[in-house]
Amino acid sequence: MAKKPASLDKSAKSPKAPAPADIGGADIGAESPQKASRVPANAEITFAYGEAQADGGETHQVAGGDVATLTTQQGMPVADDQNSLKQGTRGPTLLEDFHFREKMFHFDHERIPERVVHARGYAAHGFFELTDSLSDVSRADVFQRVGERTPAFVRFSTVAGNKGSFDLARDVRGFAVKLYTQEGNWDLVGNNIPVFFIQDAIKFPDLVHSVKPAPDREFPQAQSAHDNFWDFISLTPESFHMVMWQMSDRTIPRSFRTMEGFGVHTFRLLDAAGKSTFVKFHWKPKQGLQSVVWNEAVKINGADPDFHRRDLWDAINSGDFPEWELGVQLFDDAFADSFDFDVLDATKLIPEELVPVRVVGRLVLDRVVDNFFAETEQVAFCTQNVPPGIDFSNDPLLQGRNFSYLDTQIKRLGSPNFTHIPINAPKCPMAHFQQDGHMAMHNPKGRANYEPNSWGPTQGGPREDPVRGFTSFAEVAEGPKQRVRSETFADHYSQARQFFVSQTPIEQKHIGDALVFELSKVERPDIRSRVVSHLRNVDTALATTVADGLGLAMPDAAVAAREPITDLPASDKLSIVKNGPDSFKGRKLGILLSDGADAALFKALLKAVDGEGAVYEVIAPKIAGATLSDGTTVAAKHKIDGGPSVLFDAVALLVSAEGAKLLSRDAAAKDFVTDAFAHCKYIAISAEAQAIFVAAGIADDLDEACLLLATAADAPAFIEAARALRFWPRELAVDLDAHPQT
Ligand code: HDE
Question: How far, in Å, is the centroid of ligand 1 from the Cα of 721?
Fold first, then answer.
């Protein structure tokens, strides 16, 4: 083969490894990559099996301190991680390059199957603290001693979207809690809505198939506004109560921190004598309920698809730990028998007016994960994980889930030993004779791997404990084997109506808007019409709004399996607006600054924000920040077009006359104010900033929630006003779709 001219032989000139700048090698220090380890100086690498590796591993010095030596998985120190092993400088890569092979092999296997539902999630650690003993009704250890803390891990999720989808999809949110109790893990795998779409688990694959992307085209992603979903819903009347919740702002929460959580099903609590009390579990956020509006959600998805996960990460890392109360609704057979609906039917809730919620504990999230994959992705929740003292009811949805979750974990995590992964391992002693299998990490010692055995107390291994051990409620069940739906499950509309009439006018409007939006994306008119025919059984005014919004002739009402009850009283607890916060704490103010902005105003605003326990971010024409009237420069978090007002709970515009002139010509600045206005936010406006509202064409519409910041003394009043979070009368006044009677 002809030899290449030296001038073309790049390898003759190129160094063995790229210069640090080419590989983003700030952590490499002054040394060349051939000599230095590539482990960043600040990385704390801990492998589940190898803390000794990080602690006891070889280290050497580079600029910036001691770092661990890079090794293969086998622990062999690596000399060069930049170049594969070649024959000659430009020759083929050699099969012998076991380091390359191992690195690539591992990379090729990095992904595990995402969850079939709830794929996109975010989690944090914390604790559950008992504040009121439940020892009167349950023998569960976790409910005995007031003040005792139990470690917790909580994963929030959307349902329909894939792992890489955006956070603000209109979707139900998962609220899955793992409590590492002294009697094993208790997984309360709930949602942010207290009811479900279907009554029997056998319908779950159909429901999920219908909402997920269609099999031929693989879209739409992470949304329910399409034919397949509404086709299924329109043929499944039992879903209509949940549909009301889904079309409400519950499915576009402001934050994981501002959502309720619900166990949904009726469970049982059992005392030491085996006596059963029915229970429904509630998580109530101390932060108050809060949602965004749909137009805002759509824009947040573009501006920050990670809006919810970033919010949780930031809140916890800044020490603002989110907290929920654990509430229980306790009831007995007599109540269950007298209730209008079947307590085993997961499409029904029990209004708090009928069975009050007793608060028995608090859940605090105070630590983010060290590693997303190891913890958030690998955590395996299973509804069947309950400690002695908690038991299941015969809810057919719950019964089906108890089968499904174990199955799905094997598929996802690939081994029956998924409980050996630290995030899934109980934090109480474990002893059993289950053994071997892929990736077995906790292996029994000694001879006995069966029982009964006669190897004595020291060698024979663990034994059952009929007293401490889990005992099922001794329920008597009989009847013919059959596929039926109980007659007591036949009411489909009464509670849908009750939910609707429990909402404030603005919430009712949003439900109507959401139905019109979703159905306007449905292409088949007969499906739209079929949905409206069900809505007629829920609320006539709502059905009319939706039919009008779609330009649809009003269809006949769907035939109801059971005549709906139309006088169930409104329940205030079902409204978001009636259960909002009473402060701006934990909320975020966006402050748009320009050069020359009044420094005294800015400082007064920060003081008010701080005093409230809220946070702020600065938006400016340049990311380097703005130089205020007193000459101080404030760094910006966002450049104006990267920090739209949808990212904030309220906004303030503090600009100089010159800044206002500049921003009045800028489309992003005009969007900033028109969006804040359209989303009913509280807006603080410095005198000079008014010009931007003139340019945006909304100066004449400004209302009492648009507060002029004339002097520094006005700042506290603005933050106080912003405690209301949104000024809903604005939407009812100006929105074309505003309900006439509101
Ligand atoms: Fe789930 N559900 N589900 N689900 N679910 C899963 O388990 C299932 C239902 C819920 O953050 C899967 O690990 C069936 C109701 C949450 O890891 C799977 C039925 C409620 C999460 C599964 C339901 C939920 C899941 C998929 C009908 C609220 C995420 C991945 C009977 C009370 C947990 C996985 C996490 C996840 C099955 C209905 C909540 C396939 C068969 C009702 C929060 O096992």
Answer: 40
Contacts of 373 (CB under 8 A, 6+ apart): none
Q: 495: which residues sit within 8 A by CB, 6+ positions away?
A: 195, 241, 341, 347, 348, 349, 568
**Segments of the chain scoring below 50 in pLDDT:** 1-56, 739-742
* Short-list 599, 578, 596, CA closest to 728: 578
> Which of 99, 125, 185, 191 is labelled catalytic?
191
Going by the DSSP 8-state scheme, the letter that residue 93 receives in this structure is B
Query: Do 719 and 586 meet the contact criterion of CB atoms below 8 Å apart?
Result: no
Could you give the domains of the chain? 586-724 (3.40.50.880)
Task: Identify the pLDDT of residue 734.
Answer: 72
> Is the minimum distance from the CB of 191 to ligand 1 under 6 angstroms?
yes
CA dist 669 to 162, 230, 594, 659, 704, Å?
A: 33, 38, 11, 11, 21
Tell me which DSSP letter residue 375 carries.
I
Question: How far is the centre of ligand 1, averaged over its atoms, from the C-alpha of 117 (Å)?
Answer: 7
Four-residue CA torsion sign, 703, 704, 706, 707: positive
- How far apart CA 569 and CA 574 sit, in angstroms, is 12
Distance 193 CA to ligand 1 centre (A): 13
* Atom 43 of ligand 1: nearest residue by CA position: 174
Cα of 530 to ligand 1 centre, how many Å? 28
Residue from 376, 440, 442 nearest 412 by CA: 376
Q: Is the peptide bond before 151 cis (omega within 30 degrees of 0)?
A: no
Name the strand (E) or helix (H) holding 191. strand 184-191
Lookup result for tokens 């978001």 = 576
Which residue is closest in CA terms to ligand 1's atom 42? 196
Distance from Cα 260 to the centre of ligand 1, integer Å: 17
Closest CA to 255 of 197, 220, 300: 300
Question: pLDDT value at position 104?
Answer: 97
Nearest CA to ligand 1 atom 44: 405
What pTM was computed for the model? 0.93
Q: Which residues 6+ apart lie within 8 Å of 721 measured at CB?
A: 682, 705, 707
Catalytic site residue 106? no
Question: Read out DSSP for 465-531?
Answer: -TTTS-----------------GGG---SHHHHHHHHTS-HHHHHHHHHHHHHHHHT---HHHHHHH
Cα distances (angstroms) measured from residue 379 to each of 104, 221, 245, 413: 26, 24, 28, 9
Residue 520, phi then psi, degrees to nearest 5: -70, -15
pLDDT at residue 286, rounded to an integer:
98
Check pocket membership of 400 for ligand 1, CB cut-off 6 A.
yes
Query: Quick check: helix, strand or coil at residue 610?
Result: helix
Spatial separation of the C-alpha atoms in residues 551 and 554, rounded to whole Å: 9
What one-character-per-residue DSSP string does 19-47 give? -GGGGT-GGGTTS-TTTS--S-TT-----
Question: Which protein residue's CA is at the shortest distance from atom 30 of ligand 1?
Answer: 115
118 assigned to active site: yes
Pairing of strands 650-654, 588-593: parallel
Residue 405 Cβ < 6 Å to ligand 1: yes
